[in-house]
């Protein structure tokens, strides 16, 4: 039975990857952070009671800022594959916590690699690094591929650039099987609530049920190449099943604007939006409503405005990936379209909003969380 260790197992990708590896018969170990309340919602459905024997899913407390902790876990688990998905992964937040982001996302990767080496495991462990299209930042070539020069535009991207190169360096210096998946944006119903797609699907679903009044957005002109996280974790596993470690771009090869994603999400709720105004005065008005999915709304309501709070000090305006190498060498193609993904996300958020609304109607004093 192969053993895998996943940092960031409680995150979006970590949870899908853990499911995939369990299906493939792996013994899966994950690192979770200590928090003041439970933070394992995304993996609770695969949780195994620690009192049961022969568990194949085990969680360890840990943190990418803690070398001794990482070393101990690696020594205890003796993994065949390590997936480094743990990160302060929010680009906008990285401007507010740049040093922490560098420590976790940059030096954290070094800590893991060096622990593997010092434990003498560098020839038997295969290492996957969650690299990112944010490395391309101010894009130097369209579409972006493995050879496109990097130009990071945020503390997050700069930290991930260090991680990218230290992975290449350990591969070249010590012969480690270590590779970078340069993944473009990927989403799902498990996406963190403050990333743009989930903010939109959740926000509009809440508004449709009267739980919130208005969605406040940043730069809606930004263009992204969005895929589904389930498709992308499959590729993370495939990258570790080769004879030689290589870096791959993972993307769909199609890009859309944030505004387009808003239009699709509204349509899933039976709402047609009309965008009016320009710049920070831009807002969206309900033009028509079909069906019963948005009982709290009326034609003419303004349900979206721009809030400059969500603009970034330096923006990545456009990202478009070229996944040709992954297709040719690994036979990987994404199976879920961005429109299908949007429908899945809206359906999940609508269900949750309807449940909240029902509870409120029955006198329960609960509120939805906000950023
Ligand atoms: P999430 O933000 O959903 O998950 C991040 C995970 O890292 C969480 O489990 C989080 O724990 C954990 N984490 C945060 N800080 C630390 C720390 N100091 N020590 C240990 N663990 C920590 O991200 P995604 O699942 O979306 O992304 C996975 C990885 O892929 C990240 O590295 C991200 O930067 C990268 N990436 C993501 C892309 C995307 O579009 N989703 C695209 C390209 C790269 P907790 O749950 O406690 O917060
Ligand atoms: P990104 O994802 O920065 O690409 O990083 P995010 O969804 O946060 O932003 C995408 C684009 O939408 C614009 N935007 C807003 N973004 C947020 N979060 N909130 C808003 O209100 C808003 N309005 C407009 C942003 O300015 C941006 O242009 C994600 C993360 O998962 C990283 O970890 C990963 O490396 C990259 O994708 C690839």
UniProtKB/TrEMBL annotation:
InterPro entries: GDP_Man_deHydtase, NAD(P)-bd_dom, NAD(P)-bd_dom_sf
Catalysed reaction equations from the record: GDP-alpha-D-mannose = GDP-4-dehydro-alpha-D-rhamnose + H2O
NAD(P)-binding domain location: 5-345
Enzyme Commission number(s): 4.2.1.47
Pfam families, per the entry: GDP_Man_Dehyd
Cleaved signal peptide residues: none
Keywords from the named record: Lyase, NADP
Essential cofactor(s): NADP(+)
Top-rank EC class of the record's enzyme: lyase
GO molecular function annotations of the record: GDP-mannose 4,6-dehydratase activity; NADP+ binding
One GO term (biological process): 'de novo' GDP-L-fucose biosynthetic process
PANTHER family with a match to the protein in the record: GDP-MANNOSE 4,6 DEHYDRATASE (PTHR43715:SF1), GDP-MANNOSE 4,6-DEHYDRATASE (PTHR43715)
Family per similarity comment: Belongs to the NAD(P)-dependent epimerase/dehydratase family. GDP-mannose 4,6-dehydratase subfamily.
HAMAP family from the UniProt entry: GDP_Man_dehydratase (MF_00955)
Protein function: Catalyzes the conversion of GDP-D-mannose to GDP-4-dehydro-6-deoxy-D-mannose.
Protein name: GDP-mannose 4,6-dehydratase
Organism: Mariprofundus micogutta
Gene: gmd
